[in-house]
Specification:
- The complex is a heterodimer of chains A (about 270) and B (about 240).
- Chain A has about 270 residues and is of the alpha/beta class.
- In chain A, about 35% of the residues lie in helices and about 15% in strands.
- Chain A has a 4-stranded mixed sheet, covered by helices on one side. In chain A, strands 9-7-8-10 form a 4-stranded mixed sheet. Chain A has a two-stranded parallel sheet with strand order 5-6.
- The longest helix of chain A has 12 residues.
- The N and C termini of chain A lie far apart (about 80 Å).
- Chain B is elongated.
- The chains are: A alpha/beta (about 270), B mainly alpha (about 240).
- At the A-B interface, helix 1 and helix 2 of A face helix 2, helix 3, helix 6, helix 7 and helix 9 of B.
């Protein structure tokens, strides 16, 4: 093969031509035209108005904000792409979402969790399994997803949850049973949400303060997290209180198959 | 034909140990090939992501290619508005096509050439029958952006040297803009966008030999135009 003779200098001059920057409007326009742009709307919640954004892949962000503008800026800061207010929202979708928020609907929402690590996504998917009216500790999440040592990391992943309320990170509490922190407006909101769902946060705090981690059913001889099957169930029935899984096992109780507390190591 | 970069079996491409930092400074073509290799690797990753999750990865594709496709369209159309629309259309067409492709086909795609091909087709269809506008020498394309205040970083950045280079670039840009259509795309693809000849041929839908001779003729036409414009310039002085 012969080379293009003497193309060198012309070729070099050509290759030095500047690559022009595409206008900033290009990317959003393309995403909008192919239906991949994010859109948002808002609704009232027990913790005030919340904004909900979704992309084609699913719900991408839930946040409280003072105004639409604040939400749009927060979204752009977080994802580096823009979001536009949705012109009209189908009523069926609003209904489905509200049902879901109340813990009544099926958990069939799709989420757009792009940009999160595998681990973070696993944590969030696991949190999705906690029924309304119940809570589980961070250590439960870490153990269930096969990283029993990564309790703190599970906490950080939940703190970064882009879709709080819908992925119910408010149902994850400290490993000592205390309610703990919450990204969507602090511990007070977390307590408020749990109250609305019937998890009785005050009772949970009292149990935690007195060192109670598990409740045992004296008849069936199994022990559970205090909210398993709804907190009423265990507190009102023939209940034994345990400070640790070891204590429960020593008393001849075995871990419940529904809420799956840890299996005590033989001492 | 084997590329000079490809390591052959049994040979280590680089001496082991601490010699990695010692490297010959090579000329332009070699550097181009290096960056082209990097681009190929990035494209492989991009294709895998697109095949696995088109909707999730498509934004990445736009981000990776928007400057290049826009620049290409701009040099073909000479008008920023037209270039933006053409680039938009190209990405939308690419997305719709990818939606219909099975994952295997996406993985096997010659991504870069395919995207330039779509862009070129969009521009051609848009401007079919219309004469493409020529750019004035007084308003070179590259003078559009704004420059931030900054300290000169080397003697190379001396205003006169910089002026000379930017003037040459502007000259070259406007000469390219004046090339006949049939040579402009081949020359742009080969030398500005840095595509391999086979890719150029694929974009143009021509046999490699034809594409090669079009690139060649384009470069010759540019050289003649350059000589002519210099002569013109000397006369004016």
């Amino acid at each position: 093969m012969t080379r293009v003779k003497n193309a060198g200098s012309i070729g070099r001059a050509l290759s030095e031509l500047v690559i022009e920057k595409a206008p900033a409007t290009l990317l959003p326009a393309v995403l909008r035209r192919v239906g991949l742009a994010d859109a948002y709307w808002w609704l009232e919640s027990p913790v005030g108005p919340v904004f909900i954004a979704h992309s084609k892949a699913g719900i991408s962000m839930v946040a409280r904000a003072k105004s639409s503008g604040d939400f749009e800026r927060a979204f752009e800061r977080r994802f580096g792409r823009s979001v536009a207010e949705e012109s009209s929202v189908p009523p069926a979708r609003v209904k489905a979402l509200v049902r879901n928020l109340k813990g009544e609907g099926r958990r069939d929402l799709r989420f757009d969790l792009r940009g999160l690590s595998e681990f973070e996504q696993a944590v969030l998917r696991k949190a999705l399994e906690i029924p309304s009216g119940e809570v589980r500790p961070y250590s439960w999440i870490a153990r269930e997803i096969g990283h029993p040592g990564a309790v703190r990391a599970a906490g950080s992943a939940l703190a970064k949850n882009p879709v709080p309320l819908l992925i119910p990170c408010h149902r994850v509490v400290r490993s000592d049973g205390h309610i703990g922190r919450y990204s969507l407006g602090g511990a007070r909101n977390k307590r408020r949400l749990l109250e609305v769902e019937g998890a009785q946060p005050e009772l949970l705090e009292r149990l935690a303060t007195s060192g109670v981690r598990y409740l045992g059913n004296a008849e069936k001889k199994h022990f559970c997290y205090p909210t398993c099957g709804g907190i009423e169930t265990l507190v009102r029935t023939n209940t034994v209180r345990f400070r640790s899984e070891h204590e429960a096992v020593a008393a001849g109780f075995h871990p419940c198959g529904d809420c799956r507390p840890p299996v005590a190591q033989a001492v | 034909m084997t590329s000079g970069c490809a390591p052959t079996a049994g040979h280590s491409p680089r001496p082991p140990g601490g010699a990695a930092g010692f490297r010959l400074v090579l000329g332009q073509p070699e550097q181009n090939r290096r960056s082209a290799d990097r681009a190929m690797i990035a494209d492989e990753e991009l294709k895998n992501r697109l095949a696995d999750d088109l909707d999730g990865a498509f934004e990445g594709l736009v981000r990776a290619y928007q400057d290049r496709l826009y620049s290409f369209a701009l040099r073909l159309t000479s008008r920023p508005e037209d270039a933006e629309e053409a680039a938009q259309d190209a990405f939308v067409k690419a997305y719709r096509a990818l939606c219909g492709y099975p994952a295997e086909r996406i993985r096997a795609l010659a991504l870069r050439a395919w995207l330039y091909q779509i862009t070129l087709n969009v521009v051609r269809n848009r401007f079919r029958g219309k004469k493409l506008r020529l750019v004035s020498l007084d308003h070179p394309l590259s003078a559009r952006g704004e420059t931030a205040w900054e300290a000169p970083d080397s003697a190379d950045g001396r205003p006169d040297a910089r002026y000379e280079r930017s003037r040459q670039r502007a000259d070259m840009a406007s000469l390219v803009a004046k090339l006949p259509d049939r040579y402009r795309a081949p020359v742009l693809l080969r030398y500005v966008e840095g595509l391999r000849l086979e890719e150029v041929a694929r974009v143009l839908g021509q046999p490699v030999g034809t594409a090669k001779s079009n690139v060649h003729r384009g470069v010759n036409a540019l050289r003649e135009a350059l000589v002519a414009s210099r002569r013109e310039g000397e006369k004016k002085r």
